[in-house]
Amino acid sequence: MNPLAELGWMFTDPFMQRALLAALLVGASAPVVGTYLVQRRLSLLGDGIGHVALTGVALGWLIGAALGVAPDTLAVPGAVVAAVAGALAIELVRRRGRTSGDLALAIMFYGGIAGGVLLIGIAGGSNGNLMQYLFGSISTVSDTDLALTVVLSVVVLAVGVGLRAALFSVSHDEDFAVASGLPVWLLNAAVAIVAALTVTVAMRVVGLLLVSALMIVPVAVAQQLTHSFARTMTTASVVGVVVCVTGLTITYFQDVSPGATIVVLAVGVYAVAAAVRPLVARRRPAQDPHPDLPDDVELPPAERKAADQEVCT
Amino acid sequence: MTEPARTRPGGIGTVVTEPGAEPVIDVGRLHVHAGASHILRGIDLTIRAGETVALLGANGSGKSTLVKALVGTVTPSQGTVGLLGARLGTDRVPWERVGYVPQRVGAGGGVPSTAAEVVASGLLNGRRWWLPRGWRGRVRDALGEVGLADRADSAMQVLSGGQQQRVLIARALVRDPDVLVLDEPVAGVDRPSQEAFAATVRRLGERGVTVLVVLHELGELAGLVTRAVVLRHGVVVHDGEPPRPRTEHGAATHHHQHPHDDATRRRPALTQNPVAADPEEVAP
After folding, report:
1. Which residues of chain A neighbour B68 with C-beta distances below 8 Å?
2. Sequence ranges of the domains in chain A
3. How far apart are CA B25 and CA B27, in angstroms?
4. Residue B158 to chain A, least CA–CA distance (Å)
5. Quick check: B231 pLDDT over 70?
6. A3-312 — its CATH code?
7. Is the CB of B131 less than 8 angstroms away from the CB of A165?
8. Do the chains contact at B110 and A39, CB–CB below 8 Å?
């Protein structure tokens, strides 16, 4: 069979259609949120939320088992609740005293994983049940999962793109945002909640352990290519979509983990961008970087000459 | 979530130019604690429309804290802060009429941003969470006001320190404020940026904008400041005429080369710039 026909097959496969749509939405929305997290130097926040979401998954299982419904049905709602609660908790800690923010993240990392493993055992499940959440299971995306993914992605994109100016202001200079009368606490909470929603949406695609990579790595790629906030966000989103769809397509033909493939692809794109940039970037002559500013200090001509010679050799 | 962009409420056009008008900034018995230290110890300060006031004082005297309490980023432990007739914490302050220039801290966050993007964030306020139509033109005008019209698309981190500071001033000016609060806008800033800043303050003064500026020394602003408030250890120790620097010491061109023997010839305070006269500031 020729490759084109195989690609055609892929698009007619209903499993693959659902998976591709989920990957497309996640690839577009995760880097939008990631841009704000990188701006705030909270790149690891997604990881912290992901670990807490694991406890939520297990909690969903536990409640599902108690109510006698299929254990998986409440896993994603449980993850949403736990992730939002965890994200708001981190935001509160960050607000109280900035120095302890990273300690709070660490505690969430370990508490989240340990809580998840403990609860899944109580619920009668095995650690194997957690694996599909830890590493993703995009091929098992159901119609319900897909509907939830669509709704949450739309919310994430609407907040992340629609409120960009306000969220930029708060992320860039919080004091100035306060002095502008912007509802800083509300906007910070919006970033935290949207980050939590992204984590739970991306959970099915790349898994909780790799969620943060999808939020952060495309932004790192985009930073190599642009110097404006808006363009960084757009570029990151495009990179996210490309790696997600490409990665998923690869796993249709090769039996490898979709989440890992997508993240490795993203890191690969970053490596290429970082390696190529110095070659492509205009090589600036070793001159005054601010020709429009006069020099503060006048050097006697002899001294200047000596300095110039030093540079030349 | 909030109502869409609205034209700004009545207020424009009501600017009163002559001093002695409505108080724009009204601070009463203000105390601020940070942990165990008592930073502001009962500040009373009233600034009326059209004044250009310099806030002077040595490092640690509480200048920045006072400014931060004014714009609401520091919570007072006691006392009141009034801004444009509204009381902070209880009333809705018309922040869209207040321009704030914080002390410059680095080049911003982890994602690069252009000067235009930073300035555009000055167009937002509690009622307007989105950029208004025609924001590009307003941003360009504000950058032109500080002499950076051609750097709108430059990334913040490639600008010099003085240029970054001017971008922050443009961010405060873009909303066309009635009162401008600046925290050390010329500290560590190159000469062209200082001159551009002085020209901006002159234009604002002529337009009737109230200006409160934290300074270490009057420098380029010496002729523009109508009143000086001096803080020392969290208390106002002088409020009135701007202190005249002794000509041979205060001039920007002065080279300070003679040995210090200040103990023998210390003058009474306030005949020269009180910042420089502070005994704690002078090397023994």
Report:
1. 175
2. 3-312
3. 6
4. 8
5. yes
6. 1.10.3470.10
7. yes
8. yes
Tokens standing for residue A272: 């290429």
Report the range of poorest mean pLDDT among A15-24, A95-104, A138-147, B94-103. A95-104
- What's the whole-number average pLDDT of chain A? 84
ipTM: 0.82
H-type helices in chain A, by residue range? 3-12, 14-39, 45-67, 75-96, 101-122, 127-135, 143-162, 164-172, 174-179, 184-206, 211-225, 229-253, 258-280, 301-312
Tokens of A264: 């490795």
Residue A283: the pLDDT is 55
> Which residues in chain A touch residue B113, judged by CB atoms under 8 angstroms apart?
168, 172, 228-229
Token couple for B130: 């989105």
Between the two ends of chain B, the Cα-to-Cα distance in Å is 60
Tokens of A225: 């290519």
In this predicted structure, the answer to whether residue B123 has a pLDDT above a threshold of 70 is: yes
Cα B32 from Cα B69, distance rounded (Å): 8
B229-255 exposure pattern, b = at least 16 Cβ within 10 A, e = fewer: bbbbebebbbeeebbebeeeebeeeee
pTM for this entry: 0.82
Closest partner residue to B112 (CB to CB) among A43, A182, A228 is A228
In sequence order, the 6+-apart residues with CB closer than 8 A to the CB of B180 are B98, B99, B100, B101, B172, B173, B204, B209, B210, B211, B212, B213
Contact A294 B191 (CB under 8 A): yes
Band (A99; pLDDT cuts 50, 70, 90): low
pLDDT reported for residue B245: 58
Measured at the alpha carbon of residue A240, what is the angle toward residues A234 and A245, in degrees to the nearest 5? 130
Q: Which helix (H) or strand (E) holds B63?
A: helix B63-71
pLDDT at residue B162 greater than cutoff 70: yes
Q: How far apart are CA A129 and CA A121, in angstroms?
A: 10
Gap between the Cα atoms of A145 and A16, Å rounded = 14
Phi, psi (degrees; rounded to nearest 5) at B38: -95, 95
> Cα–Cα distance between B48 and B23 in angstroms, integer?
4
Query: Which residue type does B260 have?
Result: H
